[in-house]
Specification:
Elements: H1 10-21, H2 28-40, H3 44-52, H4 61-68, H5 74-83, H6 87-95, H7 104-116, H8 131-145, H9 171-176, H10 197-226, H11 230-264, H12 271-302, H13 307-340
């Protein structure tokens, strides 16, 4: 779409924002009651989609209602909690500053205490924390340490990943809701090559992930070789196991962050596609090391220890390694920008 076609009518945008925020006749309580009636007939997945697409300029009573339900998903409660600026009251108390009343405070305290008490039993929807959540969590712990009697304390489960199915709000779900239940509105934006800070952060997480997967493939290939004579190579085997475990932990942490960043942009996480991509990288790493072993065997059979032979071997190694090093960096960026966020 040409750039000129991406120019929006600001009056139209303001009108649409007004229509979905201000109810007909200005009866906000009637709007809230209608939303509560609709939620009461909905499913936990409906509640989750509603919370994702919620306009926080509206009355938050429907969100508080969702958080108090027995069947509320843990992922839904976490989404609401982290979008409600949970650190605000703790920061003010730690600084000894006056606190003004805000509707979110009671909801935040309720969710935090229920999570600490393991009160959210339903965990079928996927959720992951991102770097901002982790930063705020650390800040909240620091605030609590300075408060004599804090209203609540942050629990580690506020950051714990949840494995489950992907549930995301979207235009189709929005259209299915009654007019007075809808919050916000959707725009059909043209395709763009703009790279946001979220995409850059995801790319920076995917690059070490690609390298680690490739390296794990190489270590698996090396492990097979070492198993041919475990008595001789037992120390190398232990090293391989330790490194595979360490890199796997890094892959898990980075992937969790990428999933959270995608959901913040209302993107569905392609779990199966990511798994196949990861397996392919492991396979490529294993094949690469097998090729390196083959080259090393050729040089070993030549039994030429001259300076020229060593120089040729070093050059071949550089040529063998460099394309994969730069190629993985490029592949991680392209995969992030063109597949995960487009």
């Amino acid at each position: 779409m040409p750039a000129a076609d991406a120019v929006f009518d600001m009056d139209e945008l303001r009108r649409r924002a007004w229509e979905t925020t201000v109810p007909a006749g200005g009866d906000y309580q009637a709007q809230t009651d209608e939303r509560l009636d609709w939620l009461d007939k909905g499913t936990p997945e409906d509640w989750h989609r509603f919370a994702i697409g919620f306009n926080w300029s509206d009355n938050i009573e429907p969100l508080y209602w969702i958080a108090r339900q027995e069947q509320c998903e843990m992922a839904t409660a976490l989404h609401i909690f982290w979008h409600a600026c949970p650190e605000w009251e703790l920061m003010k108390l730690a600084e000894g500053e006056p606190i003004y009343d805000r509707d979110e405070a009671a909801m935040v305290e309720y969710i935090a205490k229920r999570i600490a008490a393991k009160g959210y039993k339903r965990r079928k929807i996927a959720w992951d924390a991102n770097s901002l959540h982790k930063r705020d969590y650390d800040e909240m712990r620091a605030f609590v340490a300075r408060i004599d009697n804090p209203p609540w304390k942050p629990h580690r489960d506020l950051l714990r990943s949840i494995w489950g199915k992907e549930v995301m709000d979207g235009p189709e779900a929005w259209e299915e809701r009654p007019e007075n239940v809808r919050t916000g509105f959707w725009l059909d934006l043209p395709k763009s090559d703009i790279v946001t800070w979220v995409m850059r952060e995801a790319r920076d997480e995917m690059r070490p992930t690609f390298f680690n997967l490739f390296a794990i493939g190489g270590l698996l290939a090396a492990t097979v070789e070492f198993l041919n004579d475990p008595a001789r190579w037992w120390l190398h085997l232990i090293g391989c196991i330790v490194m595979i475990g360490w890199w796997s932990w890094g892959i898990s942490a980075s992937t969790s962050t990428v999933r959270s960043l995608m959901r913040s942009e209302l993107k569905i996480v392609p779990t199966r596609q990511m798994a196949l991509t990861y397996l392919a990288l492991v396979a490529i790493g294993a094949l690469w090391l097998q090729g390196y072993f083959a080259l090393s065997a050729i040089f070993a059979e030549a039994k030429d220890t001259s300076f020229e032979a060593r120089a040729i071997k070093a050059a071949v190694c550089v040529v063998w390694i460099a394309p994969f090093w730069f190629g993985l960096r490029w592949a991680a960026e392209q995969y992030t920008y063109r597949h995960l966020f487009r």
